[in-house]
Amino acid sequence: LEKKIAILEGRMPQKYPEVKYLGYKERKRILVTGGAGFVGSHLIDVLMTQGHEVIVVDNFFTGRKRNVEHWFGHRNFEMIHHDIVNPLYVEADEIYHLASPASPPHYMQNPVKTIKTNTLGTINMLGLARRVGAKILIASTSEVYGDPMVHPQPESYWGHVNPIGPRACYDEGKRVAETLAYAYAKQEKVSVRVARIFNTYGPRMHVSDGRVVSNFIMQAIQNLTITVYGNGKQTRSFCYVSDLIDGLLGLMASSYTLPVNLGNPVEHTIEEFAMIIKNLVPGCRSMVATGAAVEDDPQRRRPDITVAEEHLGWKPKVSLQVGLQRTIDYFKEELSRTTFLNNQTY
Ligand code: NAD
Ligand code: UDP
Ligand code: UDP
Predict the structure, then answer these.
(1) Tell me: the pLDDT tens digits for 145-165?
(2) Element spanning 195, H or E
(3) In ligand 2, which atom is closest to the CA atom of 132?
């Protein structure tokens, strides 16, 4: 059975992807919190392939061992099951601090825990960075702009967030995380980077992640109704995961220390987005239905990426069509995998 699943998932146990050899002077020890999640696991693939030592810290709230299991047993790879709300003592040269639920249904499930992860968890990681003298990159979000009154959103915009609404645990949690980063930078001389990540999608998103890309694709490939929340006139701009990873690596390497928007400026209404996905799935018979609007749903979102272009030389390369096609292929495999597993008797 294991072999069948391994073949079905396109992996073979105990065979590592190719890794470059780095001498001890170039090789860094890099801590990735939330490394078993969607973004973190793609980042780890690049860092490992470059030949660095990687320590993953994750409590598996929304992440999965399966996202990183192709590195299990590799001598440069280490995984710690740990909740970052509690202190952590390890050594590192760089920290990518990604641990936090990112999907609205997940972060709203336990709002107090979301706030603790983004505040206490971030203090612990900044404390660690201070103790060991590591550079730390904080994964912030376009949600710091809330339901924006300025469009597209430049980093200089202070945002429009409801501090007591259902999204506040995440939005305000990330805003405090940014405030903490700059307080530690000023007071404790910690070297910080802040990435304001806009909607990102790609393989390894969980089938029940709850965000729009996974919902719409899972619905389209099963001919189920595509559920648009509200009238579908709200907009988002979607970035393919490999572009985001390039941006995160570029930001960590750069000397620019203020917040940087990382996202794809191509904007669509959610209604258009439903049709784009439907048309990319051959023979899709799904209906597109509008339903109740979500409370405090930001009505438009599109990054102004001038800062990333000027300071990091970064801009997204993968078109929505290409990125979505890869993501649809991934979700089709996920669906056949779960169907296969559900049909097994043990
Ligand atoms: P994800 O849910 O797939 O990954 C988050 C990871 O953090 C998971 O592996 C989860 O188990 C782990 N985690 C959560 N709480 C933890 C805790 N207390 N201790 C240890 N680990 C914990 O989400 P993602 O899309 O990969 O997002 C990664 C980061 O990027 C998050 O900080 C998120 O806020 C940010 N971000 C993502 C997007 C996006 O569109 N993907 C957009 C904006 C910001
Ligand atoms: N911390 C941690 N790992 C470390 C260093 C610190 O988890 O390697 C935690 C520590 O428990 C503290 C937090 O980070 O709660 C902030 O540390 P800092 O040194 O800034 O403050 P203090 O220890 O004085 O509270
Ligand atoms: N959305 C939707 N149907 C879904 C999931 C989400 O219409 O099944 C909408 C949601 O209301 C929002 C947009 O799609 O306007 C993006 O939602 P998502 O949860 O992916 O991320 P957000 O940008 O809101 O954090």
Answers:
(1) 999 999 999 999 999 999 999
(2) strand 192-197
(3) 8
